[in-house]
Amino acid sequence: xxxxxxxxxxxxxxxxxxxxxxxxxxxxxxxxxxxxxxxxxxxxxxxxxxxxxxxxxxxxxxxxxxxxxxxxxxxxxxxxxxxxxxxxxxxxxxxxxxxxxxxxxxxxxxxxxxxxxxxxxxxxxxxxxxxxxxxxxxxxxxxxxxxxxxxxxxxxxxxxxxxxxxxxxxxxxxxxxxxxxxxxxxxxxxxxxxxxxxxxxxxxxxxxxxxxxxxxxxxxxxxxxxxxxxxxxxxxxxxxxxxxxxxxxxxxxxxxxxxxxxxxxxxxxxxxxxxxxxxxxxxxxxxxxxxxxxxxxx
Length: 298
Known about the structure:
Layout (H helix, E strand, L loop, with lengths): L2 H15 L17 H15 L9 H9 L9 H8 L10 H10 L4 E6 L2 E6 L2 H7 L15 H17 L3 H4 L1 H13 L2 H11 L6 H17 L3 H7 L26 E4 L2 E4 L13 H10 L9
């Protein structure tokens, strides 16, 4: 929804629920002039008149800010609660808090469906950016430090689901997007995901897909050391004997491959040597292997 139309809808809903006396010469000051102002007005009034079930500090803002970490069409309820609970201490949000947010702040939340699940996201990107300003990566700090706790919490959920053999069915969201979340934490996220999935072959592609994403960022920011950190996962299973699209140096160990502009090529570990840019076509091969499971970020 375009920003002006969304603002008009929000202001209209606010005026319907609490009409303003236009006889007051300062009545215009009571009308929200931005999506962000409308949100702050609603959160303030709702939290005062209808407190959230949990004692989560700043419940309205915390619950919506959690949704800004979602990929795809949005977070399912369990992943929403997992992220909202990061840093909450003993004030862990519950399903009752989700219902509360949907009942009282639902105008700021889009309810959608993906992979047969109900999912939720913030109604507009501008509001998402207000709740969590976009991180600007730099060579010195290529990955958002705030992503560490978020990804760690999601990977902990992955670990629990794998332990009970429930990941593929218990969380279609994590099955599809965990590799993107892991990559947002950089090499630490790739390593954490690799440790969580262990040697299970059905999840090997997720780890490698995350490594490819990290390597792309490493190239863009001229940080070959980051590619070194994930090189063990820039490997098979994509390169097969009948794949002639890229030359392979068979004199190198099979694990020492990288994604170059020409496809998969052998790694030369010369001192100070930069890695070629990982190829977008290579990432598309990952997606092609598992239709509907992997989806490249737009």
